[in-house]
């Protein structure tokens, strides 16, 4: 489905995984002791100069690279025109409210360095922040690239047009978040649970957008996106589909979710590759709203039974019992 004459596939990324910190067992014992006795450092970012830093990136760069105790970075309200890279583990970014604390950049995807925010390290948390890429509707422009394991987002907003949220690699949890875009705007090969999130399509009436483009490439990969208790809206009837397969084993489930008439009756498409109809896993479980009816869905998608939906609809989907705090 060619859209607006823009590049019609999500961008690939070639950056190697953030380097893993190797710790010998003795040091590990020591750092465990340190964790239990030393609280996380708390620093403040304030554009007026009253905090520890004026720029968010400066606060991240000052956090320990070995991350043993973690750093909580409190960000005062403001529009931060910064491109951010989180390359060390156990960083938490917290805003006052997503509407008042905005991290913004304007750049289409030309390289791995293009997203407004790139999360390369593990154990990241963000609360009450807006992540935005203002490039507009002529090319893919990523607001956030999530390429580290165990990332959690609470009350955050992700705003762009094409390819807004690159949920690329690792296990991720989004709760009470808002994600806006038109084409393939949640995409990549991560394993993610979206819990009570609002996805808003800005695909114009008469065009065809897609909420997701999950990239799972083989049956052995444990990746896929699960949306539970979410809300899907858009600019008019039939402007978008739920998803299309970037990878042949693309896996996406919508459960207990409000789906407005913005979603076309067919629900999904095979991105012009009939073979993918046999390998993708696209399902719906107890959704509601005018766009939720499964009677018109493509025959190769699933109206799930409770037992089939069960693995997708709790935090266990992302092993959350092990790492969500
Ligand atoms: C972590 O890095 C800091 C410097 O950033 C250093 O002082 C500390 O000893 C390191 N801790 C471990 C456990 O390696
Ligand atoms: C973004 O940058 C492009 C040029 O690269 C410019 O044409 C456009 O006006 C900018 N948009 C915003 C919202 O700043």
TrEMBL record:
GO terms for biological process: cell wall modification; pectin catabolic process. The keyword ATP-binding does not apply. GO terms for molecular function: pectinesterase activity. Keywords: Aspartyl esterase, Cell wall, Cell wall biogenesis/degradation, Glycoprotein, Hydrolase, Membrane, Secreted, Transmembrane, Transmembrane helix. The chain crosses the membrane at residues 20-45. InterPro entries: Pectin_lyas_fold, Pectin_lyase_fold/virulence, Pectinesterase_Asp_AS, Pectinesterase_cat, Pectinesterase_Tyr_AS. Its EC number is 3.1.1.11. It is found in: Secreted, Cell wall. It holds the Pfam family Pectinesterase. It catalyses: [(1->4)-alpha-D-galacturonosyl methyl ester](n) + n H2O = [(1->4)-alpha-D-galacturonosyl](n) + n methanol + n H(+). Acts in the modification of cell walls via demethylesterification of cell wall pectin. Belongs to the pectinesterase family. This is Pectinesterase. The lineage of its organism: Eukaryota, Viridiplantae, Streptophyta, Embryophyta, Tracheophyta.
């Amino acid at each position: 489905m060619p859209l607006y004459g823009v590049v019609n596939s999500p961008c690939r990324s070639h950056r190697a995984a953030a380097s893993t910190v190797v710790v010998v067992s003795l040091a590990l014992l020591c750092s465990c002791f340190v964790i239990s006795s030393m609280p996380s450092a708390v620093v403040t970012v304030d554009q007026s100069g009253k905090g520890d830093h004026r720029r968010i990136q400066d606060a991240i760069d000052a956090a320990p690279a070995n991350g043993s105790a973690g750093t909580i970075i409190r960000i005062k309200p403001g529009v931060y025109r910064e491109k951010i890279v989180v390359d060390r583990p156990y960083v938490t970014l917290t805003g006052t409210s997503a509407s008042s604390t905005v991290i913004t950049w304007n750049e289409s995807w030309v390289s791995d360095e293009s997203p407004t925010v790139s999360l390369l390290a593990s154990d990241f948390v963000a609360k009450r922040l807006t992540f935005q890429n203002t490039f507009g509707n002529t090319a893919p422009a990523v607001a956030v690239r999530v390429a580290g394991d165990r990332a959690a987002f609470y009350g955050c907003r992700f705003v762009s047009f094409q390819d807004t949220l690159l949920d690329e690699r690792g296990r991720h949890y989004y709760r009470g978040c808002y994600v806006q875009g038109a084409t393939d705007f949640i995409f990549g090969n991560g394993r993610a649970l979206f819990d009570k999130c609002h996805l808003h399509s800005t695909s114009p009436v008469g065009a065809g957008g897609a909420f997701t483009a999950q990239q799972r490439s083989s049956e052995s990969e444990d990746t896929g996106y699960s949306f539970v208790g979410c809300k899907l809206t858009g600019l008019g009837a039939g402007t978008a589909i739920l998803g299309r397969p970037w990878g042949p084993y693309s896996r996406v489930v919508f459960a207990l979710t409000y789906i407005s008439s913005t979603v076309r009756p067919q629900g999904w498409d095979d991105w012009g590759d009939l073979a993918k109809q046999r390998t993708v896993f696209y399902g719906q479980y107890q959704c509601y709203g005018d766009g939720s009816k499964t009677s018109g869905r493509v025959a190769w998608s699933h109206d799930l039974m409770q037992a089939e939906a069960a693995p997708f609809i709790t935090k266990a989907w992302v092993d959350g019992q092990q790492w969500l705090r």
